[in-house]
Amino acid sequence: MDVVVNGEARSVPEGPAGGGATIRELLDHLGLTEGPVAVEVNREIVPRAEHVSRRLANGDVIEVVHLVGGG
């Protein structure tokens, strides 16, 4: 499946059920499992509670912001 993540075209594996990957699966694929993230799909913010169920579609445009603490 081909999507755009933070302005970069990427191929993402299909989900295990053969449908589109979930946002959580995408984050796992990108190695962004540590710490909080904010995700927007096609200019719509997706609440964290929906990351495990929201399926991506071919051509989706995704923005991921990985929050890092510090000072």
Write a brief caption for the model.
Helices cover 11% and strands 31% of the residues. The protein has one helix and five strands. The chain has one helix at 23-30; strands at 2-5, 8-11, 37-41, 44-46, 61-66.
Could you explain the architecture of this structure?
It is a single chain. The protein is mainly β. 11% of the residues lie in helices and 31% in strands. It is built from 1 helix and 5 strands. The chain has one helix at residues 23-30; strands at 2-5, 8-11, 37-41, 44-46, 61-66. Strands 2-1-5-3-4 form a 5-stranded mixed sheet, with no helix packed on it. It is globular.
The number of helical elements comes to 1
Helical percentage: 10-25%
The order of strands across the largest sheet is 2-1-5-3-4
- Please state the CA-atom Rg, rounded to the nearest Å: 12 Å
- Return the structural class: mainly beta
Mean pLDDT: 90
Q: Using DSSP, what is the number of strands?
A: 5
Order of helices and strands: EEHEEE
Q: What best-fitting shape do the alpha-carbon axes yield?
A: globular
Could you tell me how far the N terminus lies from the C terminus, measured between alpha carbons in angstroms? 38 Å
Largest sheet: 5 strands, mixed
Low-pLDDT runs of 5+ residues are none
Strand content: 25-35%
